[in-house]
Specification:
The protein is α/β, with parallel strands linked by helices and 177 residues long. The chain contains six helices and ten strands; from the N terminus they run E-H-E-H-E-H-E-E-E-H-E-H-E-E-H-E. A seven-stranded mixed sheet has the order 2-9-8-3-4-7-5, with helices on both faces. A three-stranded antiparallel sheet has the order 6-1-10. The radius of gyration is 15 Å and the shape is globular. It starts with 7 loop residues before the first strand and ends with a strand.
């Protein structure tokens, strides 16, 4: 599926493409979006949920949504203003992932997190933005991955075969380093 033994770097073409939401954009401010997130989860009833980003992780905790995987870097818009601690999870894992990259280490950690029979908090040293891509690849069909869209709201990505194929194409389009 994905070659796990090489780091991948975002190309300028992909950077432009990824400025657009990978799923359904829910616009609004974080406080008002907490209820929207809860409503969406109640309506979809996903198999599992992963969240990427400090603001979205905080929103999910505030809404009381059962999250399988949290991915955060302790920053909001690259400033130290994010979460200071993990929510209530079974295990906490740390991973290195520089901005603009998806490292083989982060791919492996996310794959293992999706296979783990419990909840996982992945603290990223570097940047977590691109972690949505491997999460969609590894989450079970019928799951959702939620991530923040800066200055706009949050994005809900429903995991199905078509979305997995799209993410596989994106990750395979990244430069191998």
């Amino acid at each position: 599926m994905v070659e796990l033994f090489r780091d991948r770097r975002l190309t300028s073409e992909l950077k432009e493409r990824l400025r657009e939401p990978l799923g359904i954009l829910i616009e609004g401010q974080p406080k008002e979006n907490i209820d929207k997130m809860k409503h969406i989860v109640d309506k979809i009833r996903p198999v599992a949920i992963a969240v990427v980003g400090d603001v979205v992780s905080s929103m999910a905790m505030a809404a009381g949504i059962p999250i399988k995987i949290y991915v955060a870097d302790g920053r909001v818009m690259r400033s130290l203003a994010g979460l200071e601690r993990a929510g209530s999870v079974d295990i906490i894992v740390r991973v290195r992932n520089p901005p603009g990259f998806i490292t083989r280490e982060s791919i492996d950690v996310l794959r293992r997190a999706t296979e783990y029979n419990g909840s996982v908090w992945v603290w990223v040293e570097g940047e977590e933005d691109l972690m949505v891509i491997p999460l969609v690849l590894f989450m079970p069909i019928g799951s959702i991955v939620i991530y923040g869209q800066p200055h706009r709201g949050f994005v809900v990505v429903y995991v199905d075969e078509k979305k997995k194929a799209e993410m596989l194409h994106i990750i395979n389009s990244m430069e191998l380093v």
